[in-house]
Specification:
Length: 64
């Protein structure tokens, strides 16, 4: 696992938190919720490749 993945996810989290707070303070709670959901989806998409690599490693170790 690379440290850049952690930094990317932290950056996404900070941007989503700031955008969500700005939208909530301006009375756009629904859009703040959509921004939060979109941030979660983007972070999960980054993690999917790492999880796939983990499964491949486990398969190769156990010879499946």
């Amino acid at each position: 696992m690379d440290i850049s993945l952690i930094i990317k996810i932290a950056g996404i989290g900070i941007l989503v938190a700031v955008a969500s707070q700005i939208l909530s303070k301006s009375g756009r709670d629904e859009q703040a919720t959509f921004v939060t959901i979109a941030g979660i989806i983007v972070a999960l998409m980054l993690l999917i490749t790492e999880i796939g690599g983990l499964f491949d490693l486990v398969r190769s170790i156990f010879g499946m």
